């Protein structure tokens, strides 16, 4: 398994901005270290880049991020993979009748985080942004604000998600 630093250094010259951004976005500021890694791990799973995901998980462990945060990041990616599809359909469907129909999808994990509800909502917001689900972005953005996070928290999460998405495009997948 490649280390995160090795992957970052392996980025081609045309992705120099991504390399620099990867070095910056995982540095705590408004978001704490666990939140930075949680957003990054959820984003790597959402963009389906297992090498990047595993390197980020290993780096998170090395940095002392608790397993519960990593579990919440992965749970957010999995739940949003399901929910973002269903809610995008409801949002884009021509017939208004679909908007009142229950989805009947199990999603109890969203209410049972292993770290904090605020973290799980933040990770879900990042993944929903990657997956272009407007109604889920709005819902999770409102939730993170209800948990005391600011516009700067949201922008940092989006910045991390965007950088991870760029890194996934720049890094080749293993054969």
Compact description:
Helix 3 packs antiparallel against helix 4 (50-62) and helix 6 (117-130) crosses helix 8. This protein has one domain (4-170): AhpD-like, CATH 1.20.1290. The relative contact order is 0.19.
What does this molecule look like?
With 175 residues, the protein is mainly alpha-helical. It has a single domain, classed as Up-down Bundle (AhpD-like), CATH 1.20.1290. 66% of the residues lie in helices and 0% in strands. Helix 3 packs across helix 5 and helix 5 crosses helix 6. The protein is globular. The two termini are 14 Å apart.
- DSSP helical segment count: 8
Number of strands: 0
The amount of beta strand, in percent, is under 5%
Radius of gyration: 16 Å
Mean of pLDDT: 94
The residue ranges in which pLDDT falls below 50 over 5 or more consecutive positions are none
Distance between the termini: 14 Å
């Amino acid at each position: 398994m490649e280390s995160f630093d090795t992957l970052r250094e392996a980025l081609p010259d045309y992705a120099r901005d991504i390399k620099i951004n990867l070095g910056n976005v995982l540095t705590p500021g408004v978001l704490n270290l666990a939140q930075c890694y949680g957003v990054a791990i959820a984003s790597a799973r959402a963009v389906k880049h297992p090498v990047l995901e595993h390197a980020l998980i290993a780096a998170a462990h090395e940095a002392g991020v608790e397993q519960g945060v990593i579990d919440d990041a992965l749970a957010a990616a999995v739940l949003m993979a399901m929910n973002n599809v269903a809610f995008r359909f409801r949002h884009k469907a021509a017939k208004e009748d679909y908007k009142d129909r229950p989805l009947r999808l199990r999603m109890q994990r969203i209410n049972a985080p292993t770290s904090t509800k605020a973290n799980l909502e933040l990770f879900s917001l990042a993944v929903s942004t990657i997956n272009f689900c407007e109604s889920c972005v709005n819902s999770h953005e409102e939730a993170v604000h209800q948990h005391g996070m600011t516009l700067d928290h949201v922008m940092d999460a989006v910045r991390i998600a965007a950088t991870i998405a760029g890194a996934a495009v720049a890094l080749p997948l293993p054969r």
